[in-house]
Backbone:
């Protein structure tokens, strides 16, 4: 789908990528959002600046460290639907959510006053680089482009067990998209 979308954009605008084309990269946006969702840091830590009282009377004292488990949140069926452990960009298309959205389903850019001030710039860079790779390379996790995914290492960050990335040059306009 990513290659098909890029071929359509190339036919409409030409091969050179510019910012005007990025809004048409809908499947790329959904794929980047899904990829980030599945590889978020395992824990987000914050220090409480003031006492916080919940509606049930529970209190988090000033100076306490609170942690939010992004890994579990990003794989919660109640939020992400069926098969939350799998890479399914279409879930973002069906929910009409974009990479730039800040919502219950996405804390990529943080929230509130700590929200990233460079969301638009970051997304622009991500899309341009991803589009270039899609246009110029077949991408796989091993020299065999059809190799099985070997899982993840769970440390402070989530990493693929197979750290190898294989890029096979190609001209996307000559690539068999069927």
Residues:
């Amino acid at each position: 789908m990513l290659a098909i979308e890029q071929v359509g954009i190339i036919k409409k605008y030409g091969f050179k990528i510019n910012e005007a084309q990025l809004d048409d990269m809908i499947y790329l946006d959904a794929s980047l959002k899904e990829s980030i969702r599945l590889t978020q840091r395992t824990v987000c830590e914050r220090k409480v600046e003031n006492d916080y009282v919940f509606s049930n009377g529970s209190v988090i004292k000033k100076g306490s460290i609170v942690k939010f488990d992004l890994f579990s949140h990003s794989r919660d069926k109640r939020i992400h639907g069926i098969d939350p452990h799998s890479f399914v960009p279409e879930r973002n298309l069906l929910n009409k959510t974009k990479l730039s959205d800040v919502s219950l389903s996405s804390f990529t850019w943080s929230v509130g006053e700590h929200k990233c001030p460079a969301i638009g710039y970051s997304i622009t860079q991500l899309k341009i680089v991803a589009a270039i790779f899609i246009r110029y390379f077949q991408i796989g996790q091993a020299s065999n482009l059809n190799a099985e995914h070997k899982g993840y290492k769970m440390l402070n960050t989530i990493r693929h067990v197979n750290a190898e990335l294989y890029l096979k040059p190609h001209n996307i306009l000559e690539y068999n998209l069927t």
Observations:
- The two ends are 10 Å apart (CA to CA).
- The chain has one domain: 2-40+70-174.
- The mean pLDDT is 86.
- The helical segments are 2-13, 26-38, 70-73, 77-80, 90-94, 119-136.
